[in-house]
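BACKBONE GEOMETRY TOKENS
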Amino acid sequence: MLEFCGLVGTLIVDEDGVYDPRLINDRLLLGMKGTLSEMELSVFRQRSIAALRQKARRGELLLTVAIGYVKAEDGQLDKDPDRRVQDGIALVFRKFAELHSIRQVLLWFRQEQVLVPSFRAAASRRLNGRCRSITRCTTC
């Protein structure tokens, strides 16, 4: 990018000053700033990953809440108080115990047009107790 800016004569401005990439000293300074920025980003990323791992070791890492559970105010996971959600999930497990195949369970739900609890992954929580047909993706 610096090469292109130098070729077309573009000046680069930041909070510390104005730089002309055609001048070797400015180019060297911009290169060093870029390298330091890359290093800072790498250190931030490493620290973030380390913090996530520590949280996971303590059992405090919670990325999303599975369907059928809700996050309580104290941070604990509880079963969803909505009886429809509990019954829907129980039905999935009962049918699996009966049919011994998740594909057969899926086909049964489609054939019977049974609605099951669902959530949007982006929201990472159940949406107002709504259910969806299993013929559609239940996480989209």
